[in-house]
Structures are given as C-alpha cells and as structure tokens.
Design brief:
By secondary structure, the protein is an alpha/beta fold. It has helices spanning 2-15, 23-27, 81-89, 111-121, 123-130, 144-153, 184-188, 198-204, 243-256, 279-291, and strands at 36-39, 47-51, 59-65, 93-97, 132-142, 174-178, 229-235, 260-265. Helix content is 33%, strand content 17%. Helix 3 (81-89) links the parallel strand 3 and strand 4 (93-97).
C-alpha cells in the first residue's frame, strides 16, 4: 500500500502546475507538534491531536479533519499540522481528528464515519480539562476531510435506521471545506477527480437489504439542509478536485435553504489550501474568524 501512496503522490505532483505548490513543498518543512494526543479507541488511527493557544480562559475551538482520499496510507492527521499550528498561534484551540481509512481494518462503512463521529464527540470529555469552549465549534476539513466535516455537521439528519445515527452528536456551528468532495455520487461519476472513483465504493460499502441506498447516510447532499453556514474554499487551478464538484454541491445546498458561499481562489491548487502562507489559507482564516462572531 505504501507503493500505491507514493504512486499517487508522484501523480499528483506531476499533474501540478510548476508555479503551484507540490506535496513535498509542504511536507518537507519542519513539522510543528501538538500539545497533546488523545485516544478515543484502540486502533492506531483512533487518535486526536490537540493544539492549545498560549492564552488564559476558554478557547475558541476548531474541529479539523484531514483528507487523503479517505485512505490512511495517503495521509493522516499530521498533514494538517502546519495550519493547526497557525491557528494555535492566532489564539484558537484545534481538535485535529484522525480516523481509520478505507485501507485499514475496520475502515470504510461504517468504521470511517463512526470514527469521525466518535472523535468529534470525544471533545465533550476533555473540554473542561483543557478549557475548550464548545458553545460554537467550527469545522475545517480538507479534500476528503471536507466531505467528513460537512457530514459531521449533518449527523442530526441521518436516517433513523442508519447504524451511523447517534442520539446527541456534537453540534457544529459552521463548516469551512477546503477543496472538499461532499457529494459522493458526483465524485463516483467523476473519473477526473484525483481520488478516483473506486474509493467511493470502498467508502460507502456494498449495498445490503438494510442499507440498500449506500449514499443515504454517507453523501452530504442526502442530509441537506444541514442548517449551518458553509464556506467552500476551492482553488481555480486545483487538478485534484474539479471545480464543478464545488459548484454542484453549492447549488444543491443553496436549493435546500442552506447558506453556502463558494470562494474561488485564483492561482491556487490543492496543496495551497493547507499551506499557511497561501492566499487560500488567508481567506480560510478570515472565514474562521468571522464564523466565531456570528
């Protein structure tokens, strides 16, 4: 599987415009470290990194979800360390979750989704200890993590019969998706997306009598309206996530009554979305700041 991940990394790098950042441009930097790592399960991937600002009082809290085509071999939570560190320096606490990808035992359906939900809800158990303010949690997700961040915001709308439904999911007040893939049906029909189409079947699992419609509780458009504001930040030159996956989802979400804004950032690929010096991340920070004062 490591060879597959390296092949995908080489492909994504080869596809990139030479003026744009590549993955080694980001991952070759010194990697900041979190303040604490907390387990919410027994698997190696069932962990969360907590980033805490050096300031007193209750901390505004950002829930962060990494991408990597829902595959642990491609990426884990450490890919978000640079922007998590940037937010820590701006006075935010960051709850950077991990989860079992479709390439790990127990991942796929329902495990990947259940992990994301359990990692999010684990915030309640540590909030008092770390002075985390959960009155208004803002979720930020990149790529496949954009899908999961939006899905987490929509958990209250999961079908009653879904095995993923929980009684009291942690409320998400606002979602910022960075080059996300929220519409799994559209992604499965888009062979030009950088994750491919086969991974969607691995994520949703095969249909069976009690789960005949595999998108009903996994694809975000099926959960609309989410009832929370959503900002989509997409790069005009993103070769991994076609722009139509952003515009298409935004149209569906607006039609449902949700407040959705698509921010198209020029001269921006997929890596820039999580590079702290980029115009895309500067826009994301503006949106995070604004989300906490609404």
């Amino acid at each position: 599987m490591r060879a597959v991940a390296l092949l995908l990394l080489m492909l994504f790098t080869a596809m990139a415009d030479p003026k744009l950042l590549t993955w080694p441009d980001l991952t070759g930097r010194p990697r900041p470290v979190p303040d604490a790592t907390i387990s919410y399960g027994g698997s190696p991937e069932q962990k969360v990194d907590l980033w805490l600002p050096n300031a007193p009082g209750r901390h505004r809290t950002v829930l962060m979800v990494h991408g990597g085509c829902w595959q642990t071999e491609i990426a884990d939570r450490s890919l978000m360390n640079w922007i998590a560190d940037d937010l820590r320096g701006r006075g935010y606490a960051v709850w950077n979750i991990d989860y079992r990808g479709v390439d790990r035992a127990g991942g796929g359906y329902p495990g990947t989704f259940a992990d994301a939900g359990a990692a999010t809800d684990a915030l309640r158990g540590v909030a008092a200890r770390y002075q985390l303010d959960l009155n208004r949690v803002v979720a930020v997700g990149h790529s496949a993590g954009g899908h999961l961040a939006l899905w987490l915001a929509g958990r209250a709308s999961l079908p009653q019969a879904s095995v993923l439904r929980t009684a009291h999911p942690l409320p998400i007040a606002h979602v910022i998706s960075l080059g996300g893939l929220p519409d799994l049906e559209a992604t499965a029909a888009s062979p030009d997306n950088g994750c491919g189409t086969d991974v969607i079947a691995r994520l949703t699992g095969a249909a069976y009598p009690d789960h005949a419609d595999v998108f009903a509780d996994t694809s975000v458009p099926r959960l609309l309206p989410l009832g929370v504001a959503q900002d989509l930040v997409n790069g005009e030159d993103d070769r991994i996530i076609p722009m139509r996956l952003g515009t298409g989802y935004a149209a569906k979400a607006r039609a449902s009554g949700d407040r959705v804004t698509l921010h198209r950032i020029p001269a921006t690929g997929h890596v820039e979305l999580i590079a702290p010096e980029s115009a895309a991340w500067a826009r994301a920070v503006q949106l995070i700041d604004a989300a906490f004062v609404q």
